Amino acid sequence: MKKYILIFLLGVTVLKSYTQTLVSGIVTTGAGTLPGASVYLEGTYDGASTDEKGEFRFKTSKTGKVILKVSYIGFETATREIDLSAGPVRYDFKLEEAFNKLDAVTITAGTFEAGDKKRSNVITPLDMITTAGAVGDVYGALQALPGTTTNGESGKLFVKGGDSEESQTFIDGSIVYAPYTTAAPNMSVRGRFNPFMFKGTIFSTGGYSAEYGQALSSVLLLNTNDMPAEDQLDLSFMTIGLGVAGTKLWKTGAVTATLSYNDLSPYMWVVPQNYNWVKYPNTAEGAVSIREKTGKTGMFKLYGSVTKSRYTISQEDLNQEGKSYDYALSNGNYFVNASWKSSLGPKWNVASAASFTSNKDDVGYDSVSVNKLLRGVHVKNVFSYPFSTLITLRFGTEFFSKTYSLDLSTSEFSKANSFTNNTTSAFAEAELYASSKFVTRIGARMEYSDYLQRANFVPRISTAYKVSKTSQFSLAYGWFYQDPTDDYLLYTHLLGYERADHYTFSYQTSQNERTFRAEIYYKNYKDLAKLNSEAFYLSESYSNTGKGYATGLDIFWRDKKTIKNGDYWISYSYLDTKRDYRDYPGEVIPGFASKHNFAAVYKHWFGGLRSYVSTNFKYSSPRVYNNPNSEVFNGEHTKPYRSVDMSWSFLFRQNIIIYAAVTNIFGFKQGYGYSYATRPDLEGIYRSASIGPGASRFYLLACFITLTHQGEANQIDKIE
Amino acid sequence: MKTILLTIAVIFATLNGMSQSKEYYTAMGEALGQYANCKSIADFQALGNKFGLIAEAEKTQWLPYYYHAHCYIIMSFMEPTDGSKKDSFIDVAEKSVDKMIELAPGESEAYALQSMMYSARLVVNPMERGQEYSILSAQAVGKALGLDAGNPRARFIKLSNDMGSAQFFGKDPKEFCPQASELLANWDNYKVKSPLYPSWGKEQVLQIVNGCK
Question: Residues A526-561: pLDDT tens digits?
């Protein structure tokens, strides 16, 4: 009996396999037939791949109605219900290109993005570290990109004809009120943050999103690293200081604690300096960084640092011949930055960020003592909601509070001024993809300041259109508002916001790891704050009657392909700008602007030598400066800025890196103009002193050691 | 009679179930047999599609996901120049690797393949991705060896990672030759759990050993 049943059942199976239906067809896309696509009946093993002609054919023993499915990388999966009961089925498919944000067109007008999420990036996080002239300074690395002008006596960012105060830095979404170290007048500063903290950088030189306010010229958005991979101990020994960092992981989080101490005394004893140091600069810093995963998608980040630095330098007193005074500076900086990102349900996403800054400068010179204190708080919440894969809405609120006080005392008098400015703002922005070729970002932002008692409203719009697989155009337009400089707000609240309107048009083409990019822009400055009399302490001395413009052309060419193991880029910027602001007598070229800026950067990996070598040449055409002895305001010209810098990283072991860098190898003479006495001497002449770098060259020798359980990780990206 | 009917019902049910898993075995066996015929990216893509189809039909078997990802990882290694193509192949592989690890979190082979996938990512741009992906790859293969220290594929992946990084850092990769010979000599001593389990790799190790001569 059992035997019979078995035979019977086998018979059924055999019979079943005889009733097979042929399924065939052809798969095409907009560009022609598609070989290699997978065509199958859903939930079964029956299927085939398309051949070179895009054709498929397979037999199935299934009957009735089934779903025929076609899939291929980069295309939307297509389905079709077919009926197998009516004999052979032929069905042709035309696949639509899938929308993938990583490959879709992106807004490039005014934007340089470094991060590994988008693969079409022009610069990478490694560039922020390995650009020779930067010597580990985030802002220094950006100065090899188009749109920026190097101001040797400042070190800060000057973007597309904008003053350095017009650029803002944000870490994980919240503002950094004191991004630079403090220095004596006409001495260069650096960024406070180690570039290795960041995994992604977006540098926007204009036309940025409505999410960012209080910046007339540019925003630098730095995103910190996520979870570290393993426990490790990093040690660094440099000619200018020592550092140690320890990282400990737990199941859902990690903590990194860093201590560093830099003292330039030994270095400055050996290498001749131009400045007369009385006490060499030293800096002590402690920082803690915590990461904690929250829920399935969330990540909480906290970073806190305490930095103390001081030095004393002897400067010539231009108002009194033969006299000099000691300029003593001590700076204390406390910074806390927290952020939390998570999804709220299947669609909503939230990003919250907060920062706290306290920056205190105590300056003493001659018989004057100046104490400056800046306290700032920024809180921000951003929500985003995708209506579909093509449309995303983002909106958020922000609160900024800034208190700045300046206490000045001399042997004769003392004066204390301060102000507190609370700004509330909100923004909304929609990103609309018409297809993977065309995107528009449209947004608006409003702000209200209780100190200025004014509100502003700005529209921003940008678009990008891909004309071919490799080329695209991008346009950006927007209004940008910023509070007037803190130095003016100390004495007046009668000023309104300063404004700039940006028009940016850019073209970018990349293929085979070669990228060419050209951008033209026009910026219209309005309502710039002006000081109209010498009585700076009177609130009536100020007005919003300044104005100006900046227009230019930026060119960028990068090629990672032509030279094996080599990578170079060339950047050129042309800038035409004039402005009437601050105490300028009329519309003139500002002192921070260079007409021509050029940078060439070359990097090479020598495998046999285990070495990564980077060199760059930078040139900025002469800038103007004002000589009060001359009739013409800003009528004098500085020398051009020229520098050839080089760095060399040598992987002694996989976990030991030796790094050497030298700036201005050829010792080009650098002069940044002159500073003048505030009043004329007995002969009616304003006495002067030239402004230049602290030394004609800077040398750095360092050794970085990483210790892990595996003993393999290294600090290749920890070159400072 | 009742018992007979019950028996028939039981047998029927069993046979039905068996025929489904038989279909799985047949399809997998057939697809695995085609590995040897794959010469080009298109061949591996067609084979990968086959495994993808089985994976989607079965949903709870990790092995079809394993081979689907494996084919796409090989494709990324075979693609000669185009970095974004390489990445798009690995994107496909990564989805299957994630599903596979979800289905078989205790499988040494699963982590070995994950390690190979991270190495494929690294190879696209060693200069920029080296730091991140060398650690990820090392961690994954470490997990694989932790689960089964004798897994020859995990050992092969670790070996080729070590040789690759030695070459990148300008050291002589030949210092790993004794390891390769030892691995090859003992290859057949490793008992593969079932005929559908991964068993590839001997040829690759043989190539390394030949390169050492």
Answer: 999 999 999 999 999 999 999 999 999 999 999 988
Tell whether B5 lies on the interface with A, counting CB pairs under 8 A: no
Domain total in chain B: 2
When pLDDT is averaged across residues A679-689 and rounded to a whole number, the result is 91
Give the pair of three-digit tokens for residue A42.
């859903």
Instruction: Report the distance separating Cα B114 and Cα B137, nearest Å.
Output: 7
Amino acid at A521: Y
Burial state string for B63-72 with b = 16 or more CB within 10 A and e = fewer than 16: bbbbbbbbbb
CA dihedral A649, A653, A656, A657 (to 10 degrees): 0
Architecture of domain A111-708: Beta Barrel (2.40)
Please give the pLDDT value at position A662.
95
Cross-chain residue pair A229–B136, CB shorter than 8 Å: yes
For residue A62, pLDDT over 50 is answered with yes
CATH of domain A2-95: 2.60.40.10
Q: What is the DSSP string of A127-157?
A: HHHH-GGGTT-HHHHHTTSTTB---TTT-S-
Please, which residues 103-162 of chain B have a Cβ atom closer than 8 Å to chain A? 127-132, 134-136, 138-139
Q: Assess if residue B97 is contained within a domain.
A: yes
Q: Are B47 and B71 in contact (CB under 8 A)?
A: yes
CB atoms within 10 A of CB A451: 15
Asked if pLDDT for residue A219 goes beyond 80, the answer is yes
Let me know if residue B120 belongs to a domain: no
Q: Kindly report the backbone phi and psi dihedral angles of residue A406, in degrees, each rounded to the nearest multiple of 5, phi listed first.
A: -135, 115
CB contact under 8 A, A73 and B88: yes
Gap between the Cα atoms of A351 and A170, Å rounded: 14
Q: Does this complex have an ipTM over 0.85?
A: no
Nearest Cβ partner of B84 from A119, A610, A716? Answer: A119
Average pLDDT, chain A: 90
Contact B138 A712 (CB under 8 A): yes
Give A317-367 pLDDT, tens digit per residue: 888 888 899 999 999 999 999 999 999 988 999 999 999 999 999 999 988
pLDDT digit string, tens, across residues A649-675: 998 877 888 999 999 999 999 999 999
Amino acid at A163: D
- Residue A9: the pLDDT is 46
Domain hosting B90: range is: 23-105
Question: Counting beta carbons within 10 angstroms of the beta carbon of residue A514, is it exposed (0 to 12), middle (13 to 18) or buried (19 or more)?
Answer: middle
Residue B197 inside a domain? The answer is yes
